[in-house]
Amino acid sequence: MTFEELPAAVVQTDSDVVAGFAHDEAQLVDRRLPLAVLSPRSTDEVVACLRAAASAGLAVVTRGAGTGLAGGANAPDGSVVLSTRRLDRIVAIDVEERLAVMQPGVVTADLRSAVADLGLFYPPDPGSVATSTIGGNVATNAGGMCCVKYGVTGDYVLGLEAVLADGRVMRTGRRTVKGVAGYGLTSLLVGSEGTLGVITEITLRLLPAPPPPATVVATFASLTDAGRAVERITGDGTDVSLLELLDATTLAAIDAHTGMGLAAEAMLLVQSDLPDPGPAIDSVQAACEAAGAVDVVVTTDADEGAQLLEARRQALPAMERLGDWLLDDVCVPRRSIVALVEGIAQVADDVGLTIGVFGHAGDGNMHPTIVFDRHDPDSLAAARRAFDAITALALELGGTVTGEHGVGRLKSGWLARELDPVALDVHRTVKAALDPHGRLNPGSVLS
Amino acid sequence: MTFEELPAAVVQTDSDVVAGFAHDEAQLVDRRLPLAVLSPRSTDEVVACLRAAASAGLAVVTRGAGTGLAGGANAPDGSVVLSTRRLDRIVAIDVEERLAVMQPGVVTADLRSAVADLGLFYPPDPGSVATSTIGGNVATNAGGMCCVKYGVTGDYVLGLEAVLADGRVMRTGRRTVKGVAGYGLTSLLVGSEGTLGVITEITLRLLPAPPPPATVVATFASLTDAGRAVERITGDGTDVSLLELLDATTLAAIDAHTGMGLAAEAMLLVQSDLPDPGPAIDSVQAACEAAGAVDVVVTTDADEGAQLLEARRQALPAMERLGDWLLDDVCVPRRSIVALVEGIAQVADDVGLTIGVFGHAGDGNMHPTIVFDRHDPDSLAAARRAFDAITALALELGGTVTGEHGVGRLKSGWLARELDPVALDVHRTVKAALDPHGRLNPGSVLS
């Protein structure tokens, strides 16, 4: 099988088209032009694409919607991009067993809404939910605001079909709730960012739809107070379905963007979707008040709750208005969130850039967002210094270099610092065993 | 490093001692005598043991408490057993971050009670909880009655330390709630039954202790009625923390054993540990009544609930009194539970043996328990036929050959039937990459 033998509809080499598939949303990562974009319409065509790439000795970078933030979909020179955009079919939704089978190119929001129509719930809700694909979510093990209660994408993946580097089709996992037959190959593929195989079908576990959530929004006169509230809420084990923190820089940017009249050192947004959320919400309110909240607003009205969440949803658009942005992703032990946010404020001072911090405080997973000008070499260099300092700080605090965005090309060097040398070596061993010619997304995850 | 160079306290070769470490609780699996039992007291000593085994060219079978039911700890001829019994220290419990670090030989019940003393909860509760070890639970990805709400052991493993076949020490995972840095090596080791490395330290995520549960016990005039109640309860998505089914054969055995006065075609035991379990319990009661339950007993008293659960806890002891027993473990889609239990009754008729079925109906994970006489060749042959028929039935129903006990030596042939050929080949590739000389538990998982 060669590229010439692939159906003409599958292969695009026009440079304008190819440029649109060349990279994801990551900053600080090289952007090159791949030789071609392959858009297979079936697992068989994925097999043909991988065989053709093997014949030609070319690297293959698999790409969902290109919303990644770690350069995992950035195609190196001399590679081909395999787009999953035409593999966009929901194959089956089994209401009784609460599972769904789909191709990787299904947009996450579409899947969520298709199952919601049947009274079911697919929790993972990465920021890119409206445009990113289930395949990309699985490949990066994406998270979102749901994770404090519902975990990450990988927690919902029951089984996969994947095409290996040599073109063989492998099925992993099961359709039952439980099962321990054999090695965790499903989990090995989840989060492997296209370096071990091309995922062509996904079986997801679903939940019954929860009731609409009740919401608490609290502002604080200091970040430390907000941090104390987070500690109380998570320490109590209160059943919350969302627990987000916004720092003063982010709030100021949102205020400038929306005129919402936000002015606080920190804000917490908390939801509970229990059938009777009263006790949980009371407990959150009490925790915020005990931590010295300036203002606490509570609503059990779902629409009002959605309006209150709007500040959080405007965080990235507000930061975007300030310039180029690098939406970073680190995760620390919950007790270190305040130290992380304070340390990042110090980094912002040191490098002379605006860095807003917001994110999933309930998980310790924060998104420092560095604002810079990529056309100004000094500003770019400062952004890079800030990025390195923040990542180093997360490791110092006992955290990880990525909570939910993945390693990609942006953090492959940092992965090597986070992992112990033997684990890094075992990564290379596994990669070499499954992709001996290093053809699948080379340079991503492992540099 | 040779065996002679190991500290004398680590190596035991006395045949009486060795015999006590030769096998687990599985039936229908060969039992041989290993050459020696190694009981290292530290990770360094585990390294020395594996290096000595490598020098001597011997296979190493790692063993926790030996409560396994799939022969995963059965030592083949010419092997050494590595016992984790002296690696029994809880290293740390971090209340604030809700995690615990321990050596593999810690007894599961001890860990559960140590964290309970601090207001925390480690959910996994395999039937062997009082004697099995966390290391064994991780190696088999053990489950229990908690799984319907709380998932399996692997859902709680944040990170591991493991010694590889060549004696290198690898650390995987993290101490944060979230993290996607690198491949899922933690998940790869979980459930790998000692075939990929020897686990020497485990970091577990914990939960806040839930309130004492409320309990519903319902009896039914037919298995179909009970199955319909299970469908209603799981279909509604009612938040239950336990959902167990006992069939008529098991109930009769329990009645004979305890004189509890049980006589029904099927019984369901259901619990909810929500802070306010009222609505969930009402919903369970309504589901049972709508399905035609003969009798429904409800209590919110924890002690009374524990007494009601006693029938379930007596299931295995009651079956044990009838003869030798093979406690099997299959998992099917929830909608197929009735078909599975009815099919097993047919198998029991066909082979002329008593087979009681009980287990985790909320997960579709049932434990058909075959009663036979292993000293009677005909009875043994019938048990083997029943075992094969039940396992084949589970696969026919879209299920898996093991829901929570593991593959071990008992089901390695069945694993090869369940997996697709490429996935099986990738299992062998991963095994060869991490243990090129096939020294770790050869013959287990992969035959």
UniProtKB/TrEMBL annotation, chains A, B:
SUPFAM superfamilies: FAD-binding/transporter-associated domain-like (SSF56176), FAD-linked oxidases, C-terminal domain (SSF55103). Residues 30-209 form the FAD-binding PCMH-type domain. It comes from the Bacteria. Its cofactor is FAD. Keywords: FAD, Flavoprotein, Oxidoreductase. This is FAD-linked oxidase C-terminal domain-containing protein. It comes from Aeromicrobium halocynthiae.
